[in-house]
Amino acid sequence: MLLSHMLDMSGVDSVVLERQSRAHVLGRIRAGVLEHGTVQLLRMVGLDARMEREGQRHDGTLVVWEGRPDFFIDTRGLTGKRMMAFGQTAITEELYAARERAGGQILDEVEDTVIDDVLGTRPRVRYTRRGRVHELACDFVAGCDGFHGICRQSIPARDRREFRREYPFGWLGILSPTPPLENILYARHTRGFALASQRGSNLSRYYIQCGPDTRPEDWSDERFWDELRARLPRELADRVATGPSLEKSMAPLRSFVSEPMRYGNLLLAGDASHIVPPTGAKGLNLAVSDVFYLHRALVEKYTRNNDVYLEGYSATALRRVWTAERVSWWLTMLLHEFPERDGFDDKLRENEFDHLCRSEAAQTALAEQYVGLPYET
To answer: Which of 5, 274, 278, 293 is catalytic?
Structure first.
């Protein structure tokens, strides 16, 4: 929908096909930490009013390491850039409203979608909606349909390379209508990793590391709060405002990249091409940067008949993807408990953290990546 909104602003027509209902889309709880570049782009395309009103300014992240002094990664002080905590669901609501005002075409509850002739000059998309079969002819297909969608699978296996890393744990998360802690917080503890994040002035998001087969229904709210607080220093645990959960879910952790992101006139974006562990808060932001590059490529093609950005789309987007994969992998390895780790691994990890605490250069390098590198021009 963001790509459709931006294309419409540039005079390019598009149709959005959505497999789920609008109620389902708006009922999903997703990411909420926005890089500086994402914040700037939402401002540029007129989707910032609610974000400025409800979002929580984010100037750094607190790391609490069991048995060691707390450490604050001062992203704003080190980079001069400010991030924002603002939920993806709210962004989606704003996009629905913007597309309705512009008369945009968003077709929900679409089934049996098939993509044909993406190597030709006029790709076609066939689908069923409300019992009727339809066909769209178009210039390009933007595959924004997520990890389990059909677009990546429409590229023959011989023509794509996939890279993946599965982690031996997941995150159990809750959303709670309670005031969040002052800072986004990462906790490294022998019981497992924990994270405290923000979605609004009275809306909190918390996660705890758990086994990959954990079932949310086996965890009462009370059990979750007790385990979360056990992984925090006492003074922070006492500040956690507990309450009923609005949502409880389990997220597996994995790293995944599929290359290339362009196959003929099929262009992949977001989770259709790449997945990052949420430790680095990069998933939503990578999707937005993909849209930035894809919008630029298509507008340049339509307005100037210039293919340079279109031909370079995959390579440009993938450079940012692999940067995000690296920092997300590094933070995951640093902060989580791994069942196969031994004392040697623990000592290396402690030394890595000590170096980060002592070295402004190391802190700056992490802050630059965490706040988001500038988009390539």
So the answer is: 278
77: number of Cβ within 10 Å:
13
pLDDT in tens, 232-269: 999 999 999 999 999 999 999 999 999 999 999 999 99
Identify which of 165, 166, 169, 164 has the alpha carbon closest to the alpha carbon of residue 195.
169
H or E element, residue 94: helix 88-101
58 counts as catalytic = yes
Domain ranges of the chain: 2-58+82-165+253-335, 168-251
Question: Checking DSSP bridges between strand 184-188 and strand 61-65, what pairing results, if any?
Answer: parallel
User: Has 134 been annotated as catalytic?
Assistant: no
CA distance 175 to 200: 11
Q: Which of 5, 36, 127, 186 is catalytic?
A: 186
CA-CA distance, 258 to 142, in Å (whole number)? 15
**Is residue 207 annotated as a catalytic residue, yes or no?**
no
278 is catalytic: yes
State in words which class domain 168-251 has.
Answer: alpha beta
Q: Which of 36, 58, 81, 295 is catalytic?
A: 58
How, if at all, do strands 247-259 and 262-263 pair?
Answer: unpaired
Q: For residue range 281-335, what is the model confidence (pLDDT) as tens digits?
A: 999 999 999 999 999 999 999 999 999 999 999 999 999 999 999 999 999 999 9
The correct CATH number of 2-58+82-165+253-335 out of 3.50.50.60, 1.10.3720.10, 3.40.50.2300, 3.30.379.10 is 3.50.50.60
Q: Exactly one of 5, 36, 274, 282 is catalytic; which is it?
A: 282
Q: Is 347 a catalytic residue?
A: no
